[in-house]
Amino acid sequence: MNESFGDVAIQEGRYLYAVINSGAEFDFGDIGINDNKIFTISYEDIAAVVHSCQAEAYKTNDNDKAKEWILAHNYVIDYASKQFGTVLPFAFDCIIRGNDETIKNWLIRNYEKLTKELKKVENKAEYSIQFFCDQKKLQAMVTNSDPELKEFKEKMDKASKGAAYLIKRQFELKLKDAVAVEISMLANDLCSKIKEHVEILKVEKNTSQVPDKYMEMKPIAAFSCLVHDDKIENLGEALDVINKLDGFAVRFTGPWAPFSFVEVKDD
Amino acid sequence: MSVNIDEGNIKQGLLGLVVALVEIIQEVLERQAVRRMEGGRLSDQEIEKLGLALAELKDALENIKKDNDLDATVESVRGDLDKVTNDMICNLIGSPGLEQGLKRHE
């Protein structure tokens, strides 16, 4: 994101990491992207965490460099979270064209919206929850609980070679549909089990980024959750119960800055 | 939208793509055959003939994959195609059932 604010038509910019719940001026040191000096620009009781830069997006074809930048970006956000509690994090490469005054004016213009968002995430953090199940165990469970599916094996044994092949395919297609229905029911059930422990729950569609440990398992559902610090233990216990069920696994990661739950658009 | 084929070996990558597409066509044919069988539109003789032909096609594809060491390539192409298709479906029809389930819980 590379935005233009106000009427400052110069090439100076400020790289925005986060907005914090404090008006204190604070020097983070040279911990930013490319070792830039990180500082705050405040208005009333909030402040933007920034570094000074040219108003140009960070671009590189070097993957290692890109990773280094993103790690530095996240490190600043984590550091700010440790110092000031939950922050409003911004995505990588959010640069505002202008100077400190431009940022201050942006804070003034969006003060109500930003304080409301800060209140929303106060004492809370984002967590990621992914549920997996053992595909073979799930298939066996579905087959055993469905009399129609159980009958197929008998039919296959009695049939001639060509017919047996089609009956086997018929069985596999029905099993696939039945497993999909079961997964949908399980996902809703898991969702209802964790819902009471979280403030906001979002379904994540992409579950492809999983460690090798879970690669052999079938992803059932993935959620991003905004969780209050007081409820994290209860959520952990609820997930532990699910994790101990035969054929199930839970991947629970966090705390993260609440990237999935903050939306700040300039007026 | 892109499908990655093995750039290190164009011949294997291309063969893998062809086999992956034939596999998909075969699966469509099998679904049609099963549907007709379930609908009672095939005689016992036709079921047997169709089943044998599809089983032979499957065996032939498995042999081609084995002889040319294509298992990983075909799996990768099919994975990419699945992802493209899933993304397209999600974009066209919006969120899947789980999100509707979530709303019901609220």
Write the topology of this structure.
The complex is a heterodimer of chains A (about 270) and B (about 110).
Chain A: E1 2-4, E2 12-20, E3 27-29, E4 38-43, E5 46-54, H1 63-84, E6 88-89, E7 95-97, H2 100-109, H3 111-121, E8 124-133, H4 135-144, H5 147-158, H6 161-195, E9 200-203, E10 218-228, H7 232-243, E11 248-256
Parallel strand pairs in A: 1-7
Antiparallel strand pairs in A: 2-5, 2-6, 2-7, 3-4, 4-5, 8-10, 8-11, 9-10
Helix pairs in contact in A: 4-6, 5-6
Chain B: H1 10-38, H2 44-67, H3 71-93, H4 97-105
Helix pairs in contact in B: 1-2, 1-3
| Number of structural domains of chain A | 2
Strand segment tally of chain B: 0
Runs of chain A in which pLDDT lies below 50 for 5 or more consecutive residues are none
Compute the separation of the termini of chain A in Å.
Answer: 16 Å
The biggest beta sheet of chain A is recorded as: 7 strands, mixed
Extract low-pLDDT stretches of chain B. 100-106
The radius of gyration computed from the alpha-carbon positions of chain B, rounded to a whole number of angstroms, is: 19 Å
Fraction of residues in β-strands of chain B: under 5%
- Ends apart, CA distance between termini of chain B: 36 Å
Structural class computed from helices and strand pairing of chain B: mainly alpha
Count helical runs of chain A.
7
Helical percent range of chain A? 40-55%
Oligomer: heterodimer
SSE pattern of chain A? EEEEEHEEHHEHHHEEHE
Structural class of chain A: alpha+beta
What's the rounded overall pLDDT mean of chain A? 88
Report the major sheet of chain B.
Answer: none
The average pLDDT value of chain B, as a whole number, equals 82
